[in-house]
From TrEMBL:
<feature type="binding site">
    <location>
        <position position="189"/>
    </location>
    <ligand>
        <name>substrate</name>
    </ligand>
</feature>
<feature type="binding site">
    <location>
        <position position="258"/>
    </location>
    <ligand>
        <name>substrate</name>
    </ligand>
</feature>
<protein>
    <recommendedName>
        <fullName>Glutaminase</fullName>
        <ecNumber>3.5.1.2</ecNumber>
    </recommendedName>
</protein>
<keyword id="KW-0007">Acetylation</keyword>
<dbReference type="InterPro" id="IPR012338">
    <property type="entry name" value="Beta-lactam/transpept-like"/>
</dbReference>
<feature type="binding site">
    <location>
        <position position="61"/>
    </location>
    <ligand>
        <name>substrate</name>
    </ligand>
</feature>
<comment type="subunit">
    <text>Homotetramer.</text>
</comment>
<feature type="binding site">
    <location>
        <position position="240"/>
    </location>
    <ligand>
        <name>substrate</name>
    </ligand>
</feature>
<dbReference type="InterPro" id="IPR015868">
    <property type="entry name" value="Glutaminase"/>
</dbReference>
<dbReference type="GO" id="GO:0004359">
    <property type="term" value="F:glutaminase activity"/>
</dbReference>
<dbReference type="Pfam" id="PF04960">
    <property type="entry name" value="Glutaminase"/>
</dbReference>
<feature type="binding site">
    <location>
        <position position="165"/>
    </location>
    <ligand>
        <name>substrate</name>
    </ligand>
</feature>
<feature type="binding site">
    <location>
        <position position="113"/>
    </location>
    <ligand>
        <name>substrate</name>
    </ligand>
</feature>
<comment type="similarity">
    <text>Belongs to the glutaminase family.</text>
</comment>
<keyword id="KW-0378">Hydrolase</keyword>
<feature type="binding site">
    <location>
        <position position="158"/>
    </location>
    <ligand>
        <name>substrate</name>
    </ligand>
</feature>
């Protein structure tokens, strides 16, 4: 395994020159464009790493998985999916257009920004501070990583530049999808995106899902049904308007973020975390997707 990972990082790192680092916040623009790393964890306690695995980066959209799990635990599946759909949108992650044109008014799915903001609004707590603290504590619990925290420079950047997200939040409030305070939902959303992780954290998250929501200490946190929902939405919507292609090329549940991270899940077997901040046109790590494609082929991981 170790040899394979070294080989795949070396092979795919050259692709990083063809992508672009996210630059909508100056702080994100500082990422090392040619970084590429992978971390794999299995149920025998093995940890394999190659490339740039020590670099911290913000989790961004991968946090949408975490808030979705907590929102379902807080409110139940029926309520959550009365406010947000389960269908791929076929649009970029930050698109606003279907909010007006979709017949039910609800965002297509929880993996696009509109859906994730609606989900953030469902987290229980008396104010934004308490709601976010619950998200962070839940993230720490499922990754068994007490060190997780927000990068406040990135958070300020998200909040200052997030006007389209803000517009979507108010749109959702207008249509009754958000019932509580919109600014609270946005604060939770911007903060959850700004949590710093490494490829290892993502591999822990991946292994948690690979084991149907059970931690390495045997604590069953998700029901099998919630775990199925999360993994299915990763396959159908986790890499935005590239999800179909990623399902064919990689064939396992994946979720990407514009910080350059991808979490991938080999059900029952492996948790995989990838970091590569150079992104393709759809906002997915360019080296990361290719690396996962190679890995899936070599280890025969595709579930299809
Ligand atoms: O809402 C945004 O624009 C970002 N904070 C998160 C987006 C993200 O990671 C989408 N990803 N691929």
């Amino acid at each position: 395994m170790q040899e394979l990972l070294n080989k795949l990082v070396k092979k795919n790192v050259v692709l990083t020159k063809d992508g672009r680092v996210a630059d909508y916040i100056p702080e994100l623009d500082k990422a090392k464009k040619d970084a590429l790393g992978v971390c794999i964890l299995d149920n025998e306690g093995n940890r394999y790493t190659a490339g740039d695995c020590e670099i911290k980066f913000t989790v961004q959209s991968i946090s949408k998985l975490v808030t979705l799990m907590l929102a379902i635990l807080d409110n139940g599946e029926e309520f959550v999916f009365s406010k947000v759909g389960m269908e791929p949108s076929g649009d970029p992650f930050n698109s606003i257009r279907k909010l007006e044109t979709s017949s039910k008014k609800k965002p297509y799915n929880p993996m696009i920004n509109a859906g994730a903001i609606a989900v953030a609004a469902m987290i229980k707590g008396k104010d934004a501070r308490e709601k976010f603290q619950r998200v962070l504590d839940f993230f720490k619990k499922i990754t068994e990583d007490e060190t997780l925290d927000v990068n406040y420079k990135i958070y300020c950047g998200e909040s200052e530049t997030g006007n389209k997200n803000r517009a979507m939040g108010y749109f959702l409030k207008n249509d009754g999808i958000i019932e509580g305070n919109v600014e609270d939902a946005l604060e939770v959303y911007f903060k959850q995106c700004s949590i710093e992780v490494t490829a290892y954290t993502l591999a822990k998250l991946g292994l948690f899902l690979a084991n149907n929501g059970c931690t390495s200490t045997g604590e069953q946190i998700l029901t099998p049904r919630i775990s199925t929902i999360i993994k299915t939405l990763m396959i159908t919507c986790g890499t935005y308007d590239m999800s179909g292609e990623v399902a064919v090329r990689v064939g396992i549940p994946c979720k990407s973020g514009v910080g350059g991270g991808i979490v991938a899940v080999s059900p029952g077997k492996l948790g995989i975390g990838v970091y590569g901040p150079s992104l393709d046109a759809k906002g997915n790590s360019i080296g990361g997707i290719h690396l996962l494609e190679d890995l899936s082929r070599e280890l025969k991981l595709s579930i299809f």
